[in-house]
Specification:
By secondary structure, the protein is α+β, with helices and mostly antiparallel strands. It has a domain of 71 residues: Translation initiation factor 3 (IF-3), C-terminal domain (Translation Initiation Factor IF3, 2-Layer Sandwich). The protein is built from three helices and five strands. It has a three-stranded antiparallel sheet. The chain has a two-stranded antiparallel sheet with strand order 4-5.
């Protein structure tokens, strides 16, 4: 991102970050300063703080805002406490049809993969 980012571009990056956090991945959010923009580092800090506020409870700050040369970044991680029901089950579509979720949080195969045509 750049310090002078448009509203739609900010929302686009925010949506992608929320999607990554929902999948359980970390997100590195960065601001790059071009030319004389480096004199206004406060704009970068405000932008990153706004990004953090928009994320809210969907992510936690793993590494606070830090500056290196002409860039400024922070790292967000997914929230630590998540129940198993909230997490997505990453399976093949066919596997999802063949297996069903039981009360014991285990995947149990159905009785038969194929049903006879003539019974």
């Amino acid at each position: 991102m750049k310090p002078k980012i448009e509203k739609h571009d900010f929302q686009f990056k925010l949506r992608n970050a929320l999607r990554f956090l929902e999948d359980g991945d970390k997100v590195k959010v960065g601001v790059r300063f071009m030319g004389r923009q480096i004199a206004h580092k406060d704009l970068g800090v405000e932008l990153l703080e706004r990004f953090q506020a928009e994320i809210g409870d969907d992510g936690t700050v793993e590494q606070p805002i830090s500056s290196e040369g002409r860039s400024m970044h922070m790292i967000l991680a997914p929230p630590k406490k998540r129940s198993r029901n909230d997490m997505k089950m990453k399976t093949h579509r066919g596997a999802a049809k063949r297996f069903k979720k039981t009360g014991g949080r285990r995947l149990q195969a159905e009785t038969s993969f194929f049903t006879p045509r003539y019974a």
